[in-house]
TrEMBL record:
Aldehyde dehydrogenase domain: residues covered: 21-480
SUPFAM superfamilies: ALDH-like (SSF53720)
Source domain of life: Bacteria
UniProtKB keywords: NAD, Oxidoreductase
Family from the record: Belongs to the aldehyde dehydrogenase family.
Name assigned to this protein: Aldehyde dehydrogenase family protein
Length: 493
């Protein structure tokens, strides 16, 4: 437990390369609290030379890390889990001041991160491959999994701590080494704190490297990631807009890419649902982290017969959510990450209202905080309801339906396919509908927003591809065919 979490930022203004804190240029940028603009830390502003050094360090560390005994890797991951839990308060504090994260979400991320480390600690013992029959007499064929090499990661600011760990741990658990570039919005809680923890746990130098950059200066680092032959995979969590730019580059460079992107996550509330349970799931699913999570509920389709009752129960809950400085443990709704995010939510609520929508709760900003907003009677052409673009803020659209099958079709009329949910008193009916959702995740009687380190989160369509949990073995290893033949070979000439 750290008594004064803010006091430990000193070494973190540097990059972490080859197991050392380094800042060759001394150039830095201010990392500020989104709530009030207070300075959190000065962070090193890196570019091409630092990225090249980091990739070289990861490349050099790869052979030994890939060959390390599972038991030795396991010990390191388990030690990192202990240190992460020990530094809980510090991580929670940094997420509050860098990314406006409430204590509930930040604390959850710390626990989830430690859980992921404990899961990852066992993945070195997953089945290593298959033995296959061959039609060639005397031949045995083996298919074994091997790590890719250096995996370069881009991390987002929103689930800063956990998503930073996910970007680091999934590749490393399968024998890859890593370079990450944390989001410039939260460089401490999305990457540099991770480097400190890995350092303290005794991970070999170069196995994980962290390079930071000033806002607007990502290009040089990204160039190195795409140009370097040593980088075998780009591991990206962020928006589909950025992903489109990077995926084009990955295509030209013929690099493997893992994409964990945004969503427009619908919930269907059937007429037989427990309405209090549904209201609780939506209140949490829509407004956790003030609507800045990829799996937040964006739109709820409610059976017309229970629509007004449901909206009343939900609004009563939503109006009680406390907003303010997330360092206060009672605060659920903190600031939006930046002025751009605040403007987007404000404009989209206004657009809906201008077209005739009714504001049931919220609908206004207070400084950098936007109050959780519920909209009904939203015309089909309002941007927030079309599902064509993710609104990354605390706004929710509710729409009545008469035909559940039509609601199921409407809920999927979006390019995204991350998470969905169905609330019903009849789980078998819920399961039937769930199987017809074209999303990576669907919950029957649960919020769209959920996370367990062992489960394979990930999306389809414009929500990307790639899966977490041990299913990430598909993303971060490749298979090698090896054959052994006894006796003389038979050839056509
Ligand atoms: P973002 O796309 O703006 O940034 C993500 C990362 O890409 C950051 O590190 C950023 O510095 C970098 N980046 C941005 N523009 C770049 C460019 N032109 N070239 C190279 N790098 C660039 O996303 P964000 O605002 O940090 O995160 C929020 C988004 O991430 C939302 O869309 C959210 O839904 C999505 N997200 C998805 C998941 C998931 O698991 N599916 C999890 C969290 C967040």
């Amino acid at each position: 437990m750290n008594d004064n979490p803010a006091a430990t930022v000193a070494p973190r203004h540097s990059h972490y390369i080859a197991g050392a804190w380094t800042d060759p240029t001394g150039r830095s940028f201010p990392d500020r609290n989104p709530l009030n603009g207070d300075l959190v830390a000065e962070i090193a502003a890196g570019g091409r030379p630092e990225a090249e050094a980091a990739v070289a360090a990861a490349h050099a560390a790869f052979p030994d890390w890939a060959a390390m005994r599972p038991a030795d890797r396991q010990r390191l991951f388990l030690r990192a889990a202990e240190i992460t839990e020990k530094r809980h308060d510090e991580a929670v504090h940094l997420m509050a001041v860098e990314a406006g994260t409430s204590r509930a979400f930040a604390s959850f991320q710390v626990q989830l991160s430690a859980s992921l480390m404990r899961q990852a600690a066992s993945w070195g013992y997953l089945p290593y491959g298959d033995v296959l029959r061959s039609d060639i007499p005397g031949r045995m064929a083996m298919v074994t999994r091997k790590p890719l090499g250096v995996v370069a990661g881009f991390t987002p600011w929103n689930g800063a701590f956990y998503l930073g760990w996910r970007t680091i741990l999934l590749p490393m658990a399968f024998g890859n080494t890593v370079v990450i570039k944390p989001s410039e919005e939260a460089p401490l809680s999305a990457g540099l704190l991770h480097a400190e923890i890995l350092d303290e746990a005794g991970f070999p130098p170069g196995t994980c490297n962290v390079v930071t950059h000033a806002p607007g200066e990502v290009a040089e680092i990204a160039d190195v990631f795409f140009e370097s032959r040593a980088v075998r995979c780009i591991n990206f969590t962020g928006s589909d807009k950025t992903a489109r730019i990077l995926a084009e580059r990955a295509g030209r460079a013929l690099k493997r890419m893992v994409l964990e992107l945004g969503g427009f996550n619908p919930m269907i509330v059937l007429e037989d649902a427990d309405l209090d349970n549904a209201a609780a799931a939506v209140n949490f699913g829509a407004f956790f982290h003030q609507g800045q999570i990829c799996m937040n509920t964006r739109k709820v389709y409610v059976a017309r017969s229970v629509h007004d009752d449901f909206v009343g129960r939900l609004a009563a809950r939503t109006r009680t959510l406390k907003s303010g400085d997330p360092r206060d443990p009672a605060v659920v709704v903190g600031p939006l990450i930046n002025a751009r995010a605040l403007a987007q939510t404000t404009e989209r609520v206004q657009d809906a209202v201008d077209r005739g929508a009714r504001v049931v709760a919220g609908g206004r900003a207070e400084g950098m905080i936007y109050h959780p907003t519920i909209l009904t009677d939203v015309p089909k052409d309002a941007i927030c309801t079309t599902g064509r673009d993710e609104t990354f803020g605390p706004m929710l659209v509710i729409e009545p339906f008469d035909d559940p099958e039509q609601a199921l079709r409407d809920a999927q009329d979006t390019p995204y396919g991350l998470s969905a949910a169905i609330m019903t008193g009849d789980p078998a009916r819920g399961l039937d509908m769930a199987q017809r959702f074209d999303t990576g995740i669907v919950h029957v009687n649960g919020a769209t927003m959920a996370g367990e380190a062992s489960l394979p989160n990930g999306g389809v369509k414009d929500s990307g591809w790639g899966r977490s949990g041990h299913y990430a073995v598909e993303d971060f290893t490749e298979i090698r065919l090896t054959t052994i033949t006894q006796g003389p070979g038979r050839y056509p000439f």
